[in-house]
Design brief:
Helices cover about 45% and strands about 15% of the residues. The protein contains 13 helices and 15 strands. The longest helix is centred in the N-terminal third of the chain and has 19 residues, at about 55-70.
Amino acid sequence: MRSWPRPSVPSLPPAAGRLRLHDTATLQVRPVGPSSGPARLYVCGITPYDATHLGHAFTYLTFDLVLRAWLDQGLPVVYAQNVTDVDDPLLERARDRGLDWRGLAERETQLFRDDMTALRVVPPDHYVGVVESVDAIAAAVARLRALGVAYEVDGDWYADRTTAARFGEVGRLEVATMLALFAERGGDPDRPGKRDPLDWLLWRRERPGDPAWETVLGRGRPGWHIECTTIAQRALGGPVHVQGGGSDLVFPHHEMCAAEGRALTGEPFADAYVHVGMVGYDGEKMSKSRGNLVLVSRLRAAGVDPMAVRLALLAHHYRRDWEWTDADLDQARERLATWRAATAAAGGLPAAPVVAGVREALRDDLHADTALRVVDAWAEASLAAAAGPGATEPDAPATVRTLVDALLGVAL
């Protein structure tokens, strides 16, 4: 599947230090990624049945910062992301609107590409749809069947959680909580014939009116979780250093991916699981099902500078739930104007402290909110110094402009 254009990412002189992030599985902020060699990132992608809202954008901007921080360490990065271009929500939306599901998926995927391009998000090296991966996913399910991890219920294939080593290692949740979330988030705990209520669907046999493909398992289509496990392992070609997504993916999605990955390889699926907080609007989590969406595409169509949108999102720490208001965008516009004025000046205060401050903030659990304040302080002080008799450095504005572009993805 085609990705989107890659923005240029300038580089800064290297500095010691490693990226540290909160790992959901260990509940610790710890170093993530290798000390050398390629850093492998997998982020769960969209189900393309509606447009990109700010909750999506907040997630993908977060992992864009992870990628940029690794690049700043001098690490090559291999990044993969899926597109769930066949799944129940997409099929239901297409039926409700009388649309071809393939056309709906392509239209919304293209809108997502356009939004990511405008926000200057570095694209994945491997942008992979489920439809193009059906044979590989079926082969992975067949492998789980051969390992005794999968069993059949009326032609469908399920994973047996009792055979999954260290099941529950990602979310560390009580069984009652897992059952409630499983039912809420696409699971079928009450289906007759299952060995355990938490067993999850790996492969769905063909139903009338549903898309299906001929595979080693017969005609059908993949379940949700196994698609990401298969795509990540095939695309990255090695251990996943970070699997990322919104906090609503901790369970069941990332828990099931972890179990499948360990079963298929005998090794942990990912070294760390990193999750992003939910963005709310009008008092509730922003979501397609509720319809309380602020869409990136609509902001762009209204003439909002995408860099202001990016700054508005980066003003919040990635792990915290928060609610979008018009004040977020107003503050971001003011910040952007101040930064542009300061970096367009003939000189500014020394840049070395701001470079060090931004790096420290990002490498310490991705505190973009702190990094923005570091640049704010430099910009305001530099503009004040330019208006007075104090000496300034002529190269400082260009250095800060490069810093903001490289690490925060904001083009000034």
